[in-house]
Structure formats: C-alpha cells, structure tokens
Amino acid sequence: MKRVSPLFLVLLVLGFFFATYNLLTMIIHYKTSTSEQWDLSNPFIQMPGNLMEGGGSKKYHVALTATDAPYSQWQCRIMYYWYKKVKEMPGSDMGKFTRILHSGKPDNLMEEIPTFVVDPLPQGLDRGYIVLNRPWAFVQWLEKAMIDEEYILMAEPDHVFVNPLPNLARGKHPAGFPFFYIKPSDHEHVIRKYYPEEKGPVKNIDPIGNSPVIIRTSVLEKIAPTWMNISLRMKDDPVTDKAFGWVLEMYAYAVASALHDVHHILHKDFMLQPPWDTEVGKKFIIHYTYGCDYNLKGELTYGKIGEWRFDKRSYLSGPPPRNLSLPPPGVPESVVRLVKMVNEATENIPNWDTLNRG
Length: 358
What we know:
By secondary structure, the chain is of the alpha/beta class. The chain is built from nine helices and twelve strands. Pfam families: HPAT (PF23452).
C-alpha cells in the first residue's frame, strides 16, 4: 500500500471537523444559510457555560414564544391579562413574565407586555412549520437574557390561567402535562432514529410537549439546544415529518429530555382543553386550541360549524370582538368559563379593537 501523505490526513481531519460542526454555532454565524448547509447529525449541543444557575427560590418565570402576527398578538394580550390577575393570588409561585418574540424585530406590544426579541430561523428552514422557531427562540433567550428565577414555565399564547398555579416541579424533575396523542411507543421505528437503543426503552420518553412545563432553568439550558437540533432533524426527514405532523416539535422536546435523562412529573390537572374537558375544577390552565361548536340545544357538533361557536382560528387577521355571546344552556362549564374570561380580558385591555388588527 502507498503511504498516506500528511497533507491528506490533515485535510481528512478538517473535513470531519466541519462535517460535524456544532449546529448552534452555524445558526448564530450563518443565519442566511439554506437548510442543505446545516449539519443535523449530532443531537447533543452544549450551551455556553456562563448562564446563571438560579437562587434557590420556588418562583418560576413565565415564558411564551410568539410572533408579531395579529393572531398571536391578541392571544398574548389575553394571556398576559390573566397572568397579572393570578400572579399575586394565594397559592401562586409566579415570578416575572417574558414574551419571547421570534419575529426578529420589535412590534407594537413592546410597552404593554414584557418582551425579549430574538431572531427567527433562517428563511425557509422551518418549511412553513412556524412552531419550529420555538426551540430556537428558547435557545437564544436562555443564552442572552438575565433570568432571576430558578424555574421557568414554558407556556403558549392560547393559555389562560384559571387558578393560581404553584410550582409543580420538584428539584431537577420538571412538571409536564400528559398529552393523549403523544405516544412514543406507537412510533418506535421512527423514534429510534433519534433515541438509540443504548439509551433504554422507548417508554422512557414522556408523553409530553414542551408546554406547559415547569422546569429548572439550568436543566432547560441543557435540553434546549438538543430540542432545537432534534426538531430540525425530524423536520428534515420525510418519514418522521409525515408520522408526527403538527406535533413534531412536541415529540422533539420529549426525545431531547429523555436523551438528557430528564423525566417529568406528569400532572393531568396542569391543564384542561375545552370542549373535551368539561369541568374546570382545580385545574390551572385553560388551553383553547380546539374549536368549540354547539347547536342551540347545547349539544357538541365537533367537526361541523355550530350555531354557536368559539374558535380562535376565526380571528386570524384580528382580535375577536368584545362581549362575545355566551354559549347556549347545556354547554359545559369549561367553555362558558373560557368565554367569560376572554370577555373580561377584552373589556379591560385598552385599544382592544384597534391595536393589532391586521
């Protein structure tokens, strides 16, 4: 065999180095790159080591990612209104609040809602799946912001706090909500692309998304870059993309957590989702992601537009009007409570009908 030249070996080493170059560094330095130039091979990416650990308090920082679209803005305004009402109630462990705006520039809610502006993913990289910006937004915020609380609640614009929310996490064990449609064991052939067998059985992956989750800040600092990288890898794989669809980013967070041996305490009362959950009880968050359609007899007509309805998607270009009509008799308490809470917020938020109409 011919002797390999030292120059060839040097070039080979450099080639492997750049082929496995840290995805996070590539995002920061090459924001205008196309998706074909991104290295998605390594699920583990470490955050910088200069992030604060926290001060030992049970308080948690409420953080939600959002865009500057009117659809996102009006939901954030309602969410922030109820945060302010519930924050000081007995039983609440809420700390400060941040809307992490991943539109790359300030918007017209900067003075109304505490906001931290971060960059979106490079154009085209999310492939129309805007939720893919969420983990990247958290990575940037955790790296750049000063966060006083030891814990973080990852929330979403379509959450309203219906009861004072204590810190449900316990030490390094985050608290999460179990979603009935997140079933890692049903997708083992796909999951194993990102969660190798040596890490253990697929049942180690919690049936959760990233929201709502209360998690120690230092733990999220470790998970967030991996969550981002796994999300991009999943979206880049047609088989995974087809299998997970619009909950792909939720699966990515669940897998990233398991890769870091982080397991969540599951709280079914963390959240309720009308119209399927009919009673509020002692639950803490109303998540109004589903449309609520009823006939005038109070019967659910899901899948068919009802004679009475509340669906956030009816208000894509601007906020819902003030004083929405209440549901007809017979509609579950959870739906009635939601509409009353929306009406209270819109009645008391200044410039409701004009500020963010697109």
